[in-house]
Amino acid sequence: MSGYKKFVVVGAGNLGSLIVEELLKQKAAGAVEEITIVTRPASKDNETNKAFAARGARIAAADLTDVSALTTALGGAHVVISTVSLTVIDAQVPVAQAAKAAGAHVFIPSEFGGPTDHLNDSLLGLKGALHAKLREVGPPLLLVYTGPTADTSWVGSPLVATGNAPISFTARNDVARFLVYVLVRAPAARLQNQTLRLEGDRASFNEIFKGYEERTGKKLDVTYRSLDSLRAKVAENPQDFDAYLHLIWATDGTNGTPDNGLYPEWNPTKVLDIIAPRK
Ligand SMILES: NC(=O)c1ccc[n+]([C@@H]2O[C@H](COP(=O)([O-])OP(=O)(O)OC[C@H]3O[C@@H](n4cnc5c(N)ncnc54)[C@H](OP(=O)(O)O)[C@@H]3O)[C@@H](O)[C@H]2O)c1
Predict the structure, then answer these.
(1) What is the CA 43 to chain-centroid distance, rounded?
(2) 88 touches ligand 1 (CB under 6 Å)
(3) Does the pTM of the predicted model rise above 0.85?
(4) Closest-lying ligand 1 atom to the alpha carbon of residue 40
(5) Which UniProt keywords apply (predicted)?
(6) Is the CB of 112 under 6 A from ligand 1?
């Protein structure tokens, strides 16, 4: 058991809200003592924060550039989980500084996608390029790699590369469940300066599309693109997120050896069961 009982989520948006939900479950079970949501002052009274406050979370407003206000907001936290949006990934430097000043044992940066350690000057490379700075100013890091969410947005008229490469997918509620379970139950040494590689499912797009067609009887209109055309698109416009992601998924789409064994009963949802649930 880590002994960690006081948790902070910075930026409880799409993913962070699900992590707060899991923390609330663990609080009800007696495994978590305190949950704080750090939010920008303008978001303090939004519906999500008000609802979480009513269920026992503490809401602390702080500007993400104000280290002193952040340090006060994070005071007493054992673990600081950042789930801020990709658009403000650099804002995590003052958050990590404040986490260290507040005495936190672990800082989890907003990763929650495929591995970024080896990426540098690219869209998701922003995350990887930040690790060294976060290590320098903050508490020990825990990097959480989940692969793409098992989302439905790419089903319909999908555009993919070859479609044959295996990809690690994890649904967001499975990410939240795994993360909170491990933060409470794994030994602290497994959480400091470590990486968690989650894999809810490992499948290629073509396997998923075939399964979808078989289950639903609906024919998908898939457009395949060559790797060279994707490379050309990224070279022409490095901000082309769609081409960039499909290039990664077609060439390097898994998270490596999964750490799923840290939560033997995890039983994550398969992509196919999300996009085409059995009736
Ligand atoms: N693997 C995947 O397929 C996948 C998919 C989606 C996201 N992700 C990753 O998951 C992480 C969290 O993403 P998310 O979708 O949960 O984030 P999100 O909901 O878009 O944003 C999370 C929170 O960031 C805070 N924030 C602070 N400054 C902000 C600003 N200037 N603009 C917008 N938000 C700001 C907001 O909290 P307050 O309003 O409370 O301050 C917001 O609720 C990111 O690292 C993202 O890249 C991965």
Answers:
(1) 21
(2) yes
(3) yes
(4) 41
(5) NADP, Oxidoreductase
(6) yes
Residue 102 has pLDDT above 70, yes or no: yes
Domain assignment present for residue 155? The answer is no
- For residue 133, the model assigns a pLDDT of 96
Domain of 192 in residue numbering reads as: 6-147+170-200+255-268
The per-residue pLDDT for range 162-171, each reduced to its tens digit, is 899 999 999 9
Q: Does some domain include residue 29?
A: yes
Cα dihedral 91, 96, 99, 104 in deg (nearest 10): 140
Sheet holding 34-39, edge to edge: 58-61, 34-39, 6-10, 79-82, 106-108
Tokens 């003592």 found at: 33
At residue 262, the pLDDT reads 98
Query: Is residue 230 in some structural domain?
Result: no
CA 89 to centroid of ligand 1, rounded, Å: 9
How many domains does the chain contain in total?
Answer: 1
Residue 275 inside a domain? The answer is no
Pick from 18-27, 155-164, 208-217: least confident: 155-164
